[in-house]
Design a protein that fits this description.
There is one protein chain. 12% of the residues lie in helices and 30% in strands. It is an alpha+beta fold and 132 residues long. The protein has one domain. The radius of gyration is 19 Å and the shape is elongated. The mean pLDDT is 80.
């Protein structure tokens, strides 16, 4: 996550309930693939583990292609780049059952934009598939 503005951005992520498609009341011939999918999902906050749930993104954070100590383009001021790196959020999926999971998280920036992120994954009991 980067911040191109001139001020630091304080942000947080919170879980919100995923609203499944309500088109089950309508003729199935009008359903989309997403509507069919939503009829069989599990919304479980516990199966998603986020590495961070909030923090501050420094102002004028560097673009992702300009990272110090990498093969990316060299910069003039690596100290600035080191202190203004983008925030990385790692998401681990730990399902409890062999079903399709879909959950929604809201990313809120103080005095900034708010947007929703939908995470989707399928649990499996087959260990060979997990190793890939």
């Amino acid at each position: 996550m980067i911040n191109p503005s001139k001020v630091d951005g304080k942000w947080s992520i919170s879980y919100i309930k995923y609203h499944q498609s309500i088109k089950y009341k309508f003729e199935q011939s009008l359903w989309t693939n997403l509507d069919y999918e939503d009829q069989n999902i599990q919304d479980d906050k516990k199966c998603w583990r986020l590495s961070v749930d909030g923090g501050v993104v420094k102002n004028r954070s560097i673009p992702v292609h300009y990272m110090p100590n990498t093969l990316a383009l060299p910069g003039q001021d690596d100290q600035y780049a080191e202190s203004h790196k983008p925030v990385q959020i790692q998401i681990m999926f730990k399902p409890e059952a062999n079903v399709l999971y879909k959950s929604k998280f809201r990313l809120t920036v103080v005095d900034g934009l708010t947007f929703d992120i939908v995470l989707k994954g399928r649990g499996t009991y087959e260990e060979e598939l997990e190793k890939k």
